[in-house]
Amino acid sequence: MLAVVKIAGQQFKVQTGDSLYVPHIEGNNGDKVEFNEVLLVDNDGKISIGSDIKAIVKAEIVAALVQGDKVIAFKMKRRKGFRKKHGHRTHYTRIKIESIA
Predict the structure, then answer these.
(1) DSSP string, 13-82
(2) Residue 9: helix, strand or coil by DSSP?
(3) What averages of pLDDT result for each successive group of 10 residues across the chain (101 residues)?
(4) Does pTM top 0.90 for this prediction?
(5) How far apart are CA 22 and CA 52, in angstroms?
(6) What is the domain count for the chain?
(7) By residue range, what is the domain housing residue 33?
(8) Do the Cβ atoms of 11 and 4 come closer than 8 Å?
């Protein structure tokens, strides 16, 4: 069984047993999470799309806070002595899909 689910404004293709990184979700390790916004369900070749989907994706939080790679934004204007350096690391949550019901 395959589903496309919307999590924090992004779409993810998930199957039972998958482990993926999603934008940070509030919770602790071991907490159960449900995602109601399912966009597509493929059940052995039978595809359901749109408002007739009644599926819920259940997942477990494996790692509550995972930091992504460091991203540097560097601005400079030549001959002016203007240099500005900003950096950040995006926060993610690692979840494991338990069931699509």
Answers:
(1) EEETT-EEEEE--S--TT-EEEE--EEEEEETTEEEEGGG----EEEEEEEEEEEEEEEEEEEEETTTTE
(2) coil
(3) 95 96 96 96 91 92 97 98 98 97 89
(4) no
(5) 26
(6) 1
(7) 2-100
(8) yes
